[in-house]
Design a protein that fits this description.
Layout (H helix, E strand, L loop, with lengths): L5 E7 L6 H11 L6 E7 L6 H11 L3 E6 L5 H11 L4 E4 L11 H9 L4 E6 L7 H16 L9 E8 H9 L7 H8 L3 E6 L13 H15 L2 H31 L6 H34 L6 E6 L2 E6 L1 H13 L1
Parallel strand pairs: 1-2, 1-4, 2-3, 5-7
Antiparallel strand pairs: 3-8, 4-6, 5-6, 8-9
C-alpha cells in the first residue's frame, strides 16, 4: 500500500473571502492523515489574499504559500505549486470551494489502491447557470473534435497525481500548459470519480467565456496539430470547388456562347475564399505564437514572495534575499 506525504496545491486569484473557509475545510478533511503540506499559490491577487496567506503560514507550519508577481493564469499557478510540492502524491483543487475538500479521503484511497492519476468528474448541477453549462459542453466538444486525446466532459483540475506523474510532468519544458491534455498524453493508470460541485460562497466565477475560448485554444494548439491538417484539407476542398466552378463557366461559354452572369456569385466566391484564407492564417498564427513563446524561453511565472518550506513563519522574498546577499558580501 502506498504511503507518504500528501501535498495539497491550491491556485487562488482574488479569493480573500473564501480563503478562511478553505483553510477550515481543508484542515477538517485532512484530519487523520499524518504528514501533510498545504501549498496555496496567490496568482497576483489584487485583494488581501497575500496578507491572509502570510497570517496562515505564521499560524500553521503545514501551510505554505507562493505569491506571484502578477496574474499569470490558472495553469501557471498550478505549475508553481507542483514545482514546490514534495508529497508522495499531490492533490490540486480550486480555492472557490467548488472542488469539495471532503473528497480528499476518497481520492487518497484510490491512489493507495494503485491508481497514478485520480480525476474528479463533475456531475451536472441543475443549479448551474445555463450559460455556464452550455459553454462547458461546447468547450469539451470543440476540444475533443480536433485534439488527439478525448477529455471526459466534467473533468477539471480537481485531481490527485502520484509522485511519478508529477516528476514526469515537471520534466516537460513547455511554457504553455494544458494539464488536462498533457496528463492524458503522459498516460499512467488513471481512474475517474464523480462528485457534486460545491457552491461558491463569495466572489464571482473567474472563467468567463473569453477565458474558456483562450483555454480551449491553448489546449488544442498545445496537444494537437489537427487544426493545421484541417486547414490543408479545407484549402484543398475550396480549391476543388473553385476549379469546378471555373470549369462550369468555361463549358457554359463554349456550348451556350454566354458567360456566367451575376455579381452575387462573384461576391460570394470572393468572401468565401477570403474567409477561408483568413481562417487558415489565424490557425497558423496560433501555432506560430506558441512557437514564439517557447523560443523566448521565459518562465511560466515569476515569484514575488513565498514562505520557506519547513519554516512556514519565515517569509522568503527575492528582493530580501538579494539584499541579504549584498549585505553579506560587504562584511
Amino acid at each position: 500500500m502506498r504511503e507518504g506525504r500528501i501535498s495539497i496545491v491550491v491556485p487562488a486569484f482574488n479569493e480573500a473571502e473564501n480563503l478562511p473557509l478553505l483553510k477550515d475545510r481543508l484542515t477538517s478533511a485532512l484530519e487523520g492523515f499524518g504528514d501533510v503540506e498545504i501549498l496555496i499559490v496567490d496568482d497576483g491577487s489584487h485583494d488581501r489574499s497575500a496578507q491572509i496567506l502570510r497570517d496562515f503560514a505564521a499560524e500553521d507550519t503545514r501551510l505554505h504559500y507562493v505569491s506571484l508577481s502578477r496574474n499569470f493564469g490558472h495553469q501557471s499557478a498550478l505549475k508553481a505549486g507542483l514545482d514546490r510540492a514534495s508529497g508522495a502524491c499531490v492533490i490540486t483543487l480550486d480555492a472557490d470551494l467548488q472542488h469539495p475538500p471532503e473528497h480528499i479521503a476518497e481520492m487518497v484511497e484510490s491512489w493507495r489502491d494503485g491508481f497514478d492519476v485520480v480525476n474528479m468528474v463533475r456531475r451536472d448541477d441543475p443549479g448551474t447557470p445555463a450559460f455556464k453549462r452550455v459553454t462547458s459542453k461546447l468547450f469539451y466538444r470543440f476540444v475533443n473534435a480536433i485534439s488527439d486525446f478525448e477529455i471526459r466532459p466534467g473533468t477539471s483540475d480537481f485531481r490527485l497525481l502520484d509522485r511519478r506523474v508529477v516528476d514526469a510532468l515537471l520534466r516537460l519544458e513547455e511554457r504553455t500548459l494544458f494539464l488536462r491534455g498533457t496528463l492524458l498524453w503522459l498516460g499512467f493508470q488513471q481512474c475517474y470519480i464523480a462528485y457534486d460541485p460545491g457552491t461558491r460562497a463569495h466572489g464571482t466565477v473567474k472563467y468567463n467565456f473569453r477565458r474558456m475560448i483562450s483555454l480551449a485554444l491553448d489546449g488544442i494548439t498545445s496537444s494537437s496539430t489537427r487544426p493545421l491538417r484541417f486547414s490543408t484539407y479545407l484549402g484543398a476542398v475550396m480549391a476543388g470547388l473553385g476549379m469546378t466552378y471555373a470549369g462550369y463557366a468555361l463549358l457554359l461559354k463554349i456550348f451556350a456562347g454566354a458567360p456566367v452572369s451575376g455579381w452575387a456569385s462573384l461576391l460570394v466566391g470572393i468572401m468565401t475564399f477570403g474567409g477561408v484564407q483568413l481562417l487558415m492564417l489565424g490557425i497558423m498564427g496560433e501555432y506560430l505564437g506558441k512557437v514564439l513563446v517557447e523560443v523566448k524561453g521565459r518562465p511560466s511565472y515569476i515569484v514575488r514572495e513565498q514562505s520557506e518550506p519547513g519554516a512556514a513563519a519565515k517569509i522568503k522574498s527575492p528582493v530580501a534575499a538579494l539584499q541579504a546577499r549584498l549585505s553579506n558580501s560587504r562584511m
